[in-house]
């Protein structure tokens, strides 16, 4: 059945059927001149060879079968151009989403290429393979960049959270952290060994040089 996308296939089938039935003369030869009193016997014979069932079946607008078929072809040729544009756009804008099977992605590209071939636009297999590689690499590179950006953003967010937690600590909490420091000399909390008075007294008693005071 003729629809908006199968005119070429439909026309081929029609021509085969009409040829097998030997009723395709009107499509192969120009229309003969109308019979007159001066028409030759050959012209009369050709006119008589037209089946009576065909005579008077044309509409007022259609005078020749060939013209009718040509007009159909022109009408459907416009649809072919629209379909070509749509298929080419689909082929060039195909994206690998990362979740689907790569084999199915490649098969879909070759399926679109086969539709273009039916419309007399043939893409070589080497070109198709190159297109698959280019589109896949571009998409994978884009996904890698996005992943790196997300990782970096997550790292920055983690640092910001740590900084906010530090800033949220009050003076009392920081003082408490300092108090929890133990001296290695007297083993008492709240100061370091270099600030320990007992340690300084011990050094003085031993005759050791005085330590520089902490700034």
Automatic annotation (TrEMBL):
Positions of transmembrane segments: none
SMART domains to which the protein is assigned, alphabetical: ZnF_C2HC (SM00343)
Keyword check for Nucleotidyltransferase: no
InterPro entries cross-referenced by the UniProt entry: Znf_CCHC (IPR001878), Znf_CCHC_sf (IPR036875)
MF GO annotations: nucleic acid binding; zinc ion binding
Domain of life per record: Eukaryota
Keyword Transport part of the UniProt annotation: no
Swiss-Prot/TrEMBL keywords: Metal-binding, Zinc, Zinc-finger
Database matches in PROSITE patterns: ZF_CCHC (PS50158)
Occurrences of domain CCHC-type (ranges): 183-198
Protein name, as recorded: CCHC-type domain-containing protein
